[in-house]
Structures are given as C-alpha cells and as structure tokens.
Amino acid sequence: MQLLKTLCEFPAPSGEEAALSRFVLDYVQEHGPSWRTSPTVVHDESRFQDCLLLVFGQPRTAVFCHLDSIGYTVRYGRELVPIGGPAAPVGTRLVGRDAGGDVACTLAVSYFEDEDGDRHARYGYEGGRELAPGTSLTYACDFRETETTVQSCYLDNRLGLYAALRLAETLEHGIIAFSCWEEHGGGSVPYLARFIHDTYGVRQALICDITWITQGVRPGRGCVISLRDSLIPRRGYVERVRAIAAASGIPHQLEVEGIGGSDAKDLQRSDIAWDWCFVGAAEDNVHTPDEIVDKADIASMVALYGVLLREL
Length: 312
Prior knowledge:
Distance between the termini: 29 Å
CATH architecture of the largest domain: 3-Layer(aba) Sandwich
Order of helices and strands: HHEHEEEEEEEEEEHEHEEEHEHEEEH
Radius of gyration: 19 Å
Number of helices: 8
Largest sheet: 8 strands, mixed
CATH class of the largest domain: Alpha Beta
Mean pLDDT: 96
Low-confidence stretches: none
Helix content: 25-40%
Strand order of the largest sheet: 1-2-12-3-13-17-15-16
Structural class: alpha+beta
C-alpha cells in the first residue's frame, strides 16, 4: 500500500494536476522498463496540458483515469470556494502553499438564507495567517491501513490511479489515459478521446474511478460494474464487460444509480461513437477526509482490469 499512500498524500485539486502528472511520468520512466510491455508515453503540454497517455502494443480499449481531487480555493476575507463537491465536517484540517510558504488551517462553515429563504453553506478557514486569494487547500492526509481496509482522503481517485499503474505492469495492448478536471466538471476527455480515436482507431473505454457504498453495493464483495448512473451506457457493450467478468470468476457486483457521473460524460456526449463502462471499487464516506475501501475490492479491481483489457 506504500504506492497508494504516496498518491493519496499528493495535493492535486482540479486545475493543479501538473505535479501529480510529473510523478506519474517519473514513475513510468523508473518502472516501465520492467513491465511486460514498455509503453509509448504521450505527453505534450501544448495539446494535452497536464494529461498524459500510456500506449501499449496494438490498443483496442482505452482506460480513462482522472488525476485530480476535490478541495477549496481561497477567495477573500478567509472565505473558501469549493473545488468539486467536498463533504468535510467543520474542523477538518486543510493544507496548502502560497507565496509565504506552507500553510495549515481548519475548515469553518456558516449558513445563510437567500432571497427565497433557501439555506446555503458558506465555507471558510480558521487558524494561521491570512492566505493569498487563489491559494488551493486540500485535506491533510491521514492514511490508515488495517488488515482488511485502507482509509484516507482522496482514495477517489488515487485508488483509480493506483489500479491503473498496477494494470500497466502486465498490460500488452491498451491505452491508459490520465485526465484532469473530472471533479469539477471535466473538460480534458474530449481532446484526449479525439486524439485516441484519430490516432489509434480506439472507441471503446473503461472508466477507472471510484464509486459509492449503497444499499445495493456492499464492501468486500468485489469491484463494481456500473450499469448506469446519471448517464446510460450502451447495454450491448456493458453486457460484453459483464460476460467477461462472469467468466473470470473474479468477485464483482453490479451498480444501478440515477445520479453521479465520471469522465464517461464527455465520451457519451462526443461526436464519436464511444462505448464505455464504469468499473471501480466502492468507498464509504465519499469526498471526506475519511474515505474507506475494503482491500478485497481493491484486489478485485486490479485483477478485473487485467482480464478486461485482455478480452475486450
């Protein structure tokens, strides 16, 4: 779990993925020569900004994995603007860095009513010095491991990144696309998807991300194959994924939701006929500093991606 711990400790809120992207590039340079297939690394800031692609062999399927996380942006007068959808309690420890150096503070929340009487939260920070506007703050990482679970901030989606890097160890044919901004509305997948389609002729994808524990999805029962969330993938493709998973014998479970989304939304709305399916472990305490995942589901996710990339 040391790699996962390192990834969770990395501050990379939406819009500030550059350092994590560089970490992945350095990781591939160090470990790639020992993988089954040495990938072609596609990283061109002028075209892809902080995103990058790993291309293995003769790819048929692309795996999309977002690098970014939620957080907060300092506004004025100790006010914070959320990045994505953080759900932390009052008093949560936040960390960041501005021109004055490293900073640490705690989350404060107040409430106000609008003209219609609706109640809204206003976020702020307490403790320490006043921070420069535009400073990003993220959860202070407290990585906890037991015999059966891991718990930390940013398992969404550093666990997806972990699974993708583990997949890379044995992958012979496929593409791993590391995207940006997913937590705050997306926007990088359209140009990645267009390049992948036009360059390699690939138009089927798996979404390597983390979903939720619900009444129908329980911890320890295996990786989740999502039949739908706020979007509906093409059933014929999802059934292919399900059949491969069933034949593999790897524990997995099915998800049906009416809310939520992922990098798939940009594929679904593309002018290219992309097929996609969300495959990922489920966590509890979503978007808090205490996200928790069962280790059995992590093992299932890593194993299932290996099979799916061979068979699709």
